[in-house]
Design a protein that fits this description.
The radius of gyration is 22 Å and the shape is globular. Helix 2 packs antiparallel against helix 3 and helix 13 runs antiparallel to helix 14. The protein is mainly α. Among the domains are: 21-114, Serine Threonine Protein Phosphatase 5, Tetratricopeptide repeat; 206-298, Serine Threonine Protein Phosphatase 5, Tetratricopeptide repeat, CATH 1.25.40. It has helices at 2-14, 30-40, 45-58, 64-75, 78-85, 89-92, 95-110, 120-124, 134-143, 147-158, 168-176, 182-198, 211-224, 228-241, 246-258, 262-275, 280-292, 296-309, 315-327, 330-343, 349-364. The relative contact order is 0.08.
Length: 367
């Protein structure tokens, strides 16, 4: 309990410097910070970066804030972004660029199909005018949420045999996601994977352009279409490509848990947690998985680690409260549930009501 209370105190202290939101906005909601960041991004990229940072703190499982921070970084220096697009080694190998590319990689680890409409702001700041070509028209249509039109423009490029347009298949897959055309997105990503595998040069300019990431993305597409067995094969391929690729390891654990194979599920989730000791969302998923297996006492450790890593991340507090109840410590459970209610976004009505019911039951039992 003492260490948990210390975390709560540190959380209160870490609230200093949090960006202000409009009066009616929910200061517990990552979406409120992200939306505000998107509003000011073009004119004030530094302010937007701070807003995106707080959006990430409130829910580190979301990809959008990390992608927003990647865009904000490049908006600060149009010349550097132009050289980045030209694969200038001095830019690609600079510590600042390596660090910001890690933000993009981490975004894709959470969601390989994170909406990327904000990227149009980067191209818009480049000197000169946009060339009138299918890629330009595609990205402009995508940024305006004209997804079918964007898919048509990108499709003109994917029919080309030039290596220059290989990753346009990924861009086209992005356009299919808001339309829920998951079959079409899967076709594009599968074709991309086949092309990458046949290339003589397997080196990627950027860390996020990798075979493991493409396999992982395809696995998620199979999963959302209800094809668990084929999804599992693609997640396994992702791990084979990179043994340290923890997002696919976590998905394998989820699939094993769905098959009631608790031994395999525990192994896969544990490996994911060991590979990502500083990712609060993975620690949280591991704790939830253990809780679902009926191992409440074991779940306490990863859930508390998630809270230590990110004290403003609400969901682990709720799961920790449930775990403490099952572990027999009602006082600790009440403390965790109260902390959850302090941090929960208003729109999480079902979870808030659940936490209140549990807390009322604990108080009624005279804890």
């Amino acid at each position: 309990m003492n260490s948990f209370l210390v975390v709560c105190v540190l959380a209160a202290q870490s609230n200093l410097g949090r960006p202000r939101l409009p009066q009616r906005a929910d200061a517990n909601d990552w979406q409120a910070y992200f939306d505000r960041g998107a509003e000011v991004l073009r004119r004030y990229p530094n302010q937007a970066d701070s807003l995106f940072h707080w959006a990430h703190r409130l829910d580190p499982s979301r990809a959008e804030p990390l992608f927003g921070r990647w865009v904000a970084f490049w908006l600060k220096d149009a010349n550097r972004f132009e050289r980045y697009l030209d694969d200038d080694p001095r830019v690609l190998e600079s510590p600042a660029v390596l660090a910001v590319d890690t933000l993009y990689l981490r975004a894709l680890q959470r969601n390989p199909f994170v909406p990327q409409q904000l990227v149009v702001l980067l191209y818009d700041q480049l000197p000169g005018s946009w060339d009138d070509n299918p890629a330009t028209r595609g990205w402009l249509a995508y940024s305006k949420q004209q997804y079918s039109l964007a898919a048509a423009y990108f499709g003109q490029l994917t029919r080309s045999k030039s290596d220059r347009y290989v990753w346009m298949r990924y861009a086209r897959a992005l356009t299919f996601m808001p339309l829920q055309s998951f079959d079409s997105a899967s076709v594009e990503m599968t074709a991309l994977l086949a092309t990458l595998r046949t290339r003589a040069d397997t080196q990627r300019t950027h860390s996020y352009e990798s075979l493991e990431m493409v396999n992982y993305a395809i696995g998620l597409l199979h999963l959302v279409r209800g094809h668990a067995d084929s999804a599992r094969r693609f997640f396994e391929h992702a791990v084979e490509e990179n043994l340290a690729f923890f997002p696919a390891q976590a998905e394998l654990g989820e699939l094993a848990l769905g098959r009631f194979n608790r031994t395999t599920a525990e192994r896969d989730f544990r490996q994911a947690a060991e590979l990502a000791p500083d990712e609060a969302w993975i620690q949280h998923r591991y704790g939830v998985a253990l809780l679902r297996m009926g191992r409440a006492v074991d779940a306490l450790v990863p859930l508390q680690r998630a809270i230590t890593l990110e004290p403003w991340y609400a969901e682990p507090y709720l799961m920790l409260g449930i775990a403490w109840v099952e572990a027999g410590d009602k006082d600790a459970a009440a403390t965790a549930l109260e902390a959850y209610l302090e941090r929960a976004p208003r729109r999480a009505t079902e979870a808030i009501n659940d936490a209140r019911r549990r807390l009322a039951a604990l108080r009624g039992s005279g804890h």
